[in-house]
UniProtKB/TrEMBL annotation:
Name assigned to this protein: Uncharacterized protein
Domain of life: Bacteria
Lineage: Bacteria, Pseudomonadati, Pseudomonadota, Alphaproteobacteria, Hyphomicrobiales
Organism: Rhizobium grahamii CCGE 502
Length: 290
């Protein structure tokens, strides 16, 4: 057992006795949750000094940035990411494949961070009645040219096929044989919901500025056997119309281009760190108690 210093949600650092940093962070998170508005760290430390948690085996699906993978890795978990594209950080813990190829490999926790959502989300439902004239940058140049040559009916059929593909991927991940699951996805329209087996509404929608990042981007999480994320460092948002507000809105103001989809989909560091500490700690404690 070692003593770790952990700074919890803006409070002064406190020391926790644990086998690993991950366990210490779980103790701190659990203490915060149980303390409520009254923060008596000494009392809670005494109560939880013998609590434990274990490193868990985690798959981060549909991620190329490595942000979420690195957050869990820093806490000592056995974590891997996967995507159809290589990882930006060239990690040897990234697998280039369809996430569905790995769902039966005995994971303790699955976090799917950026599944294709354009055809599932409310903002895209209009294209199911009147298809767009062109495809966005998430499609290959070849697909974009093929689409341009289609007539309206063919384009509309293409939109519905893409909806089916997106729903199939979400459904496969949501119903995977993994005890704890988190999927990041915008609020869906009714056609998407109808296509997903065992659909439930997202458990929560968070903002980066709840976790110390100066940005606006509503992020919804569908959760199975995992707690809602607790804000770690809530900032005060700038007033609308100010230059600072525009800077915080950079995700929504990203100009068209080949990398726009990556800019708009990347996980913010504060959310990644909170997920690693809270979901990883939660899963580790459950695993240790089993």
């Amino acid at each position: 057992m070692k003593t770790f210093s952990v700074e919890v949600y803006g409070y002064a650092p406190e020391r926790f006795l644990a086998d690993t940093k991950a366990k210490a962070m779980w103790l701190a998170f659990k203490a915060f949750r149980e303390a409520g508005p009254k923060w008596d760290f000494q009392k809670i430390f005494d109560q939880h000094v013998h609590s434990r948690g274990s490193p868990v085996r985690i798959l981060i699906g549909c991620e190329t940035s490595g942000m979420m993978r690195r957050a869990f890795d820093r806490l000592g978990h056995d974590v891997w990411s996967c995507d159809l594209l290589p990882s930006d950080d060239r990690s040897n813990r990234h697998i280039i494949c369809d996430v569905r190829d790995l769902l039966n490999d005995g994971w303790d926790l699955l976090a799917v961070m950026h599944p294709p959502c354009t055809r599932l989300c409310n903002s895209g439902v209009r294209w199911l009645t009147e298809p767009p004239t062109k495809l966005n940058e998430t499609y290959s140049a070849e697909d974009q040219l093929t689409y341009l040559a289609m007539d309206r009916d063919a384009r509309l059929a293409f939109m519905w096929r893409e909806l089916d593909k997106g729903a199939d991927l979400f459904s496969a991940c949501w119903n995977a044989p993994i005890e704890r699951i988190a999927i990041e996805n915008p609020v869906m329209h009714r056609h998407a919901k109808a296509r997903i087996e065992n659909y439930v509404d997202p458990a929560q929608t968070v903002q980066p500025w709840w976790f110390g990042d100066e940005a606006f981007k509503g992020t919804s999480f569908f959760l199975k056997s995992l707690p809602k994320l607790v804000p770690t460092n809530k900032l005060t948002p700038p007033k609308a119309g100010t230059e600072e507000h525009k800077l915080w809105s950079k995700i929504h103001r990203a100009p068209p281009g080949p990398d726009r989809w990556k800019i708009r989909s990347e996980t913010f560091p504060g959310i990644a760190d909170a997920a690693a500490a809270q979901w990883g700690g939660y899963a580790g404690a459950q695993k240790e108690a089993a």
